[in-house]
Amino acid sequence: MSAAHELIHRTGQSADFEIHIFEKRSETVGGKARSIPVPGSATGGRAPLPGEHGFRFFPGFYKHLPDTMASIPYGESTVVDNLVVADRLEIAQFDKDPIVVAARFPRTLDDLITDIEAIFGENTGLLPGEARFFAGKLWQVLTSCQERRLASYEKITWWDYLEADTHSPAYRNLLVSGLSRSLLANDPTKASVRTVGDTNIQLFLGILEPGHPTDRLLNGPTSKVWLDPWRQHLEQQGVIFHMDSPAARIAVANGRVSGVTVTTPQGERTVTADAYICALPVERMEELLEASRGPGDPVKADPSLAHIAALAKEVSWMNGIQFFLKTDVPITHGHVLYADSPWALTSISEAQFWSNEHLPGCGDGTVNGILSACISQWDTPGILYGLPARQCTRAQIADEVWAQIKRSVNVGGKTLLTDANRHSWFLDPDLTETANGGIEISDAEPLFINVTDSWAIRPEAVTAIPNLLLASDYVRSFTDVACMEAANETARRAVNQILKLAGSNADPCTLWPLHEPDWLAPFRWHDKVRFELGLPWNGHLI
Ligand SMILES: Cc1cc2nc3c(=O)[nH]c(=O)nc-3n(C[C@H](O)[C@H](O)[C@H](O)COP(=O)(O)OP(=O)(O)OC[C@H]3O[C@@H](n4cnc5c(N)ncnc54)[C@H](O)[C@@H]3O)c2cc1C
């Protein structure tokens, strides 16, 4: 949809491009970002309760996606105006008061250490010096040149870089895993310093720099306030959606894609076009390439595509669950990271932000709040059943998540969440119980992780097959972490190549490198000189 949008906005409705989108799902567009109406929840002519695969957050450093959203009409304005700022980040702990981070820090270099110590210093279980040590490590990434990040930090896990094994459990939970795993499902034992460090820096800089919100979210269910209006807009612009039509095979002849076979409710058909963008998640792209083996094998025409099979193994589970509440409980005005939760939970209390949704108009009319949580760790035993999430039934998952959240927020003599206030829950339907005892969970839509050294084998949006382009969160991008921003950026890269191939004089899509603060440029420059001389980082200017 990003690619279709950017192409049509650059060339105009009646121009040379006819755009068709072939989507596997029968109704909803938007992939993992879509909302999921809770089946059977509506009574009395109301709408179903709004469920989701996982809540959506739009960090302040996103530029590509908000730029596209700013040209999707929504009433008198655009959908980007449906983004609202969350001004708190809460780090909840078991049986202890939470740490609440306000979205403003003083803006000086030395203050980075002081600030991190102030936030994580007291009542956290961190040992003396650990917050300072962490700040120093972040500082190292901040002041390292890009060349060092690619050559060296790409090869080290975030876990090893932060020397997690030799520090306290609180350090591991809060600083190593908490920030990386909870926000974008980056397993710190696998994800590279380059990816997690760069992303953390972007998040911290959003806090440091005045005028840039760190955390934004939509003011209603994602499909309602963004994706459905987007589809409608694209259709009005002439884009044709073919739902229930997964791509089944790609055929290459004479070095170019000669056609793509799609499976439709009426049977298979071959689609031919001037150019094709595969905007599939990595594990589906791998399936598609596998099914395309034979005389017209795309991998023979571009052997680098073979790496997609290795990348497809690097996926992790991150899935959402919503607790519908009779009375709203806004835990904090922003996201909550559950630092001690063995399942690496995060949550958001949505109703306070959802000016665009009247919850009592949904379900049976008695829901007034939604606590939407994401589970990012599936292999660690929980506190209620002693089982990892992977081995629980759906109902056990719901109870276990509820127990971990309650133990984190019902603290300091306050009882924010009660069982009596819980109306119902909805767990991502991608998680299905299997027949073998009913305790295994399978995930139809996992999330890619940028593991160490994966940059070298990740594809560019432009392949060696001139009319085959790739766009998705695993494709190389400035954003370099699996998220909606990366998916949008790579779609822009694909569109720019199509414009080039077509000899179009339309303006190419803008691409933004990750923001590096100007005030640290002398440090990065100094480090670049040292890197080129083969010297290690030292963090000083002289
Ligand atoms: C629980 C969870 C929470 C997340 N939260 C955030 C967040 O807060 N912020 C953020 O930026 N990112 C978040 N992400 C990551 C984000 O959802 C993904 O990075 C993003 O959706 C990737 O977009 P995509 O278009 O590449 O893939 P997808 O969103 O997976 O979309 C792919 C589309 O292709 C379709 N498809 C699959 N196979 C075929 C086929 N053979 N033929 C045709 N169509 C096919 C699918 O049905 C789907 O519509 C989250 C991810 C998860 C799992």
SSE inventory with pairings:
Blueprint (H helix, E strand, L loop, with lengths): L1 H10 L8 E3 L12 E3 L12 E3 L11 H6 L3 E2 L2 E2 L4 E4 L1 E6 L2 E7 L8 H10 L9 H13 L3 H6 L6 H4 L7 H16 L8 H16 L6 E4 L3 H15 L3 E3 L4 E7 L2 E9 L2 E5 L4 E3 L3 H10 L6 H4 L5 H6 L2 E2 L2 E7 L8 E5 L6 E5 L19 E7 L18 H16 L12 E6 L3 E3 L7 E3 L3 E2 L19 E3 L13 H18 L19 H12 L10
Parallel strand pairs: 1-10, 7-17, 14-24
Antiparallel strand pairs: 2-3, 4-5, 6-9, 7-8, 11-12, 12-13, 15-23, 16-19, 16-20, 17-18, 18-19, 21-22
The protein binds flavin-adenine dinucleotide (FAD).
Shape: globular
Would you state the CATH class of the domain at 316-443?
Alpha Beta
Helicity, in percent?
A: 25-40%
Strand order of the largest sheet: 8-7-17-18-19-16-20
List of distinct ligands in this structure: flavin-adenine dinucleotide
Total count of helical runs of at least 4 residues? 15
CATH architectural grouping of the domain at 316-443: 2-Layer Sandwich
CATH topology of the domain at 316-443: D-Amino Acid Oxidase, Chain A, domain 2
The largest pleated sheet is described as: 7 strands, mixed
User: Class by helix and strand content?
Assistant: alpha+beta
Low-confidence stretches: 103-108
Secondary structure: number of strands: 24
Beta-strand proportion:
15-25%
State the end-to-end distance: 49 Å
**Average pLDDT across residues?**
90
| Whole-angstrom Rg | 23 Å
